Amino acid sequence: MDKLVIEGGKPLSGTIRIHGAKNAALPILAAAILADGTVKLDNVPQLLDIEVMLNILRRLGCRAVQDGYTVTMDSAGAHSAHVPEDLMRQMRSSIFLMGPLLARFKEVHIYQPGGCAIGERKIDLHLRGLQALGAELEQCGNRITCRAEQLEGAEIHLDFPSVGATENIMMAAVLAKGTTVITNTAREPEIVDLQRFLNRMGANITGAGSDTIIVTGVKQLRGCQYEIIPDRIVAGTLMIAAAATRGAVTLTNAHAEHLTALIHILRRAGVQIATSDGIINVTSIGRPKAVERTVTSPYPAFPTDLQSQLMVLLSLADGVSVMKETVFEGRFRHVDELSRMGADIRVDLSSAFVRGVQSLYGATVEATDLRAGAALVIAGLAAQGRTILEQVHHIDRGYDRIEHIFSRLGAKIERYTPVPKLDFANG
């Protein structure tokens, strides 16, 4: 397994462009299977999760080619609605294929998805939404089959504003007969991006970004060209890293309006932030201030995907901060690793009490999931001495070669790939 070796204690500085959003690209790639024609997507990041999604689409019969940050996809040859179990286990976001495959083939066969180990992530809201549109469900072991000769528009209320369920229902409903009204929907920017993409293909959807989305079914969708929005979580990670290392960083291709909650918290911590069209400047000189209370909640509140990164900054702050996690119950697994580096953090159920220390110190630590891994990179950059970070494959799911990103900002960070040992005795 690859490792990152980080020499910490150096302030980040420079300018970096934010790559496309993984959480926007994945559902859009799934939705492209609905197009009658070629879809060309720009600003698609080169990530492990993107590679898995493209491999799934190819196994279903699509032609999908990634050239740099552009993906060209033609689903004319798609012949299967059976998502391979081996690939589905690798990535939870493969669940996004349920809605579009059901709409196109009138049936879909999937398995319980895999992904990051950050707590229980049920798909019952997805299934109930598809049932409301007229799908019949069968479950045998971990295999789920959905069938519907004709999806019909319906009124669907989500018990929780789930991003994945909102997007899956949207994709299924675009070719349904009649109008679908989805209430208590998630409001994330990635959902707005999906609406824009589907409408570019000829769908009729309104309301994304609010708590009610209306989908009026159409008979056909066409191919198009579309550019994925910047990744707000990557941007937030870099903003926090600049603050934790007491550096000065400029982000381009960044949407500050997608990061309002984080910007508010960083300013409370004493970080200087200036924004203009597509640009965010972050400057931090002295020790950050403690932030009395941070609570993760669905957008536009503070995102759970930045909780572990912010905890690194607060572990260096002057005073005691409290962080409450309300989205995923398994999202404090990075605390033990940060403690190895000298952080003073106590966890009580869904709350973490962070007493700031003067310095973190390099250690050998392990990424337990995607965002925890990013947090440990920040900790290594801010720490005194050398940090060795193992299980880097988790980070590769959401950051396009994170060592290259930070190297461009002056960090001393390198990836080491073990060379397989040859067994001469067995030929």
In short:
By secondary structure, this protein is an alpha/beta fold.
Query: How large, in whole angstroms, is the Cα Rg?
Result: 22 Å
Which geometry do the CA atoms define?
Answer: globular
Question: How is the main sheet built?
Answer: 4 strands, mixed
Number of helices: 13
* Spatial order of strands in the largest sheet: 23-24-1-25
Structure description:
The radius of gyration is 22 Å and the shape is globular. Residues 115-120 have low confidence and may be disordered. 28% of the residues lie in helices and 26% in strands. By secondary structure, the chain is α/β, with parallel strands linked by helices. It starts with a strand and ends in an 11-residue tail after the last strand.
Any descriptors?
single chain; four-stranded mixed sheet; alpha/beta; 26% strand
How are the SSEs placed, and which strands pair?
Elements: E1 3-7, E2 13-17, H1 22-31, E3 35-36, E4 38-42, H2 48-59, E5 63-67, E6 70-74, H3 85-88, H4 98-105, E7 107-111, H5 124-132, E8 136-140, E9 143-147, E10 155-157, H6 163-173, E11 179-183, H7 189-200, E12 204-206, E13 212-216, E14 221-222, E15 225-227, H8 232-244, E16 248-252, H9 260-268, E17 272-276, E18 279-283, E19 293-295, H10 307-314, E20 320-324, H11 335-340, E21 344-348, E22 351-355, E23 364-366, H12 370-382, E24 386-390, H13 402-407, E25 412-416
Parallel strand pairs: 2-16, 3-14, 4-15, 10-11, 19-20, 23-24
Antiparallel strand pairs: 1-24, 1-25, 4-6, 5-6, 7-9, 8-9, 11-13, 12-13, 16-18, 17-18, 20-22, 21-22
Helix pairs in contact: 1-2, 1-7, 4-6, 5-6, 6-7, 8-10, 8-12, 10-12
